[in-house]
Design goal:
Chain lengths: 219, 191
């Protein structure tokens, strides 16, 4: 089975210069705030989880050509389509054309503030002891992976050090596949820039990622 | 795109999956309530209150929560402090993870390929595009938000800001400085 993420951009060349933007410039098209709100409101229904959303976005074939809210919108339509909640002919018609399969919950206006202020914590009670400790040398697993993962390709096979432990968290790789939460220990792992890149610009630079225990092996 | 989004909203509302009033409330939240001024208050408090600073560096989620900022995309916060010898810079190379309760919605550049691709490889070059040059020998630490931990950078308190109150200090704290892509403003530049 092949799985291709188009969103794993760390270290990629030829992406051009950064264009700074002034504070308060939130949206550039009138539809963008509605696309944001639809994404958040449908996310709150429980029809899918955040990791499934990320997987839906990063596998869009035209990811690189789309601006960010287009990515969100395309992924939203894909998630709705895959679950049979909204089909393309309904979007084309601008109306619901068939009965609505049930969903877990609907976000009411009165609940927006509380829902946002609560969020969706991913830490879970520790049910196992951590395999690694602060300062320990580790090596990251090698890819590619046939599923959604949060281990960026620039860190594959690289050696780093455990910098921080964050407790056990919902494991994105399993959660995105619909295989449940399968909480794993989460660590911040730091790498010397020259371990990751041959470039002179990497000297004096430390790069860290947050990595679940299954991504790590002792170095 | 306007028509397509409106069509999707109509379909979702007709099916009873979304409440249009909730959509209005979501947009209003990020347009008027939750944004980088929240984070600026956190930083100004850290600059003026050593006990709060310690708390923030030790348990950022609780310290930030004590000022009323919590929740979506900030469930698990870590604060890092920029000093004369160490500069932190935050990115999400895999998508657009960003600490919403303190900074609001991410700017376009944060979500775009140039920043995400280059900042882990050439952070000094990227900083130069923001007009920031750090002293030679400053250690740069790039934090890639690859899980559900969200990072807030506490920028260095600018010279000449002694004696300013929390509100005046917060006005010096820019969004970019809390990502690490900028520095806090000098007191004269803020006016």
């Amino acid at each position: 089975m092949s799985y291709a993420s188009h969103a794993d951009l760390g270290g990629k060349r030829g992406c051009g210069a950064v264009v700074p933007e002034r504070e308060g410039e939130l949206f550039h098209e009138a539809w963008e705030p509605r696309a944001l709100a639809l994404t958040l409101a449908m996310g709150a229904t429980g029809a899918w989880n955040l990791d499934m959303s990320r997987a839906a976005r990063e596998t869009l074939p035209d990811y690189a050509e789309l601006i960010y809210y287009r990515i969100w919108l395309a992924a939203l339509e894909k998630l709705l389509r895959e679950r049979g909640l909204v089909l393309p002919d309904e979007i084309a018609a601008g109306h619901s054309l068939r009965s609505a399969p049930p969903i877990e919950r609907v976000l009411a206006a009165a609940d927006v503030a509380r829902t946002l202020a609560t969020g969706t914590p991913t830490q879970r009670p520790a049910t196992a002891s951590a395999r690694f400790s602060v300062g320990q040398r580790v090596r990251m697993r090698d890819g590619p992976f046939p599923h959604h993962t949060r281990l960026p390709s620039y860190a594959w096979r690289k050696r780093g050090s455990i910098e921080r432990l964050h407790g056990m968290h919902v494991f994105a790789d399993a959660h995105a596949r619909g295989d449940g939460e399968q909480p794993q220990w989460l660590y911040t792992v730091s790498f010397d820039g020259v371990e990751l890149w041959a470039d002179a610009s990497a000297r004096g630079v430390t790069i860290s990622i947050d990595a679940w225990e299954p991504y790590l092996e002792p170095a | 795109m306007d028509l397509r989004v409106r069509a999707l909203e109509t379909v979702l509302a007709e099916k009873g999956y979304v409440d249009p009033a909730a959509l209005d409330a979501l947009v209003d939240t990020y347009q008027t309530k939750v944004g980088p001024r929240n984070g600026a208050k956190v930083v100004a408090r850290a600059w003026t209150d050593p006990a709060f600073r310690e708390w923030l560096l030790g348990d950022a989620t609780a310290a930030i929560g004590s000022l009323g900022f919590s929740g979506r995309q900030g469930e698990h916060m870590v604060a890092v402090e920029n000093t004369p010898s160490r500069h932190h810079l935050v990115v999400c190379t895999l998508c657009s993870c960003y600490p919403w309760p303190v900074l609001g919605l991410p700017p376009t550049w944060y979500k775009s390929a140039p920043y995400r691709s280059r900042v882990v490889r050439d952070p000094r070059g990227v900083l130069a595009e923001f007009g920031v040059t750090l002293p030679e020998g400053t250690e740069i630490r790039v934090l890639d938000s690859t899980a559900e931990i969200r990072y807030l950078v506490i920028p260095q308190r600018p010279a000449g800001s002694q004696g300013l109150g929390e509100e005046a200090l917060a006005a010096l704290v820019t969004r970019d400085s809390m990502i690490g892509a900028g520095l806090a403003l000098a007191p004269t530049a803020a006016r």
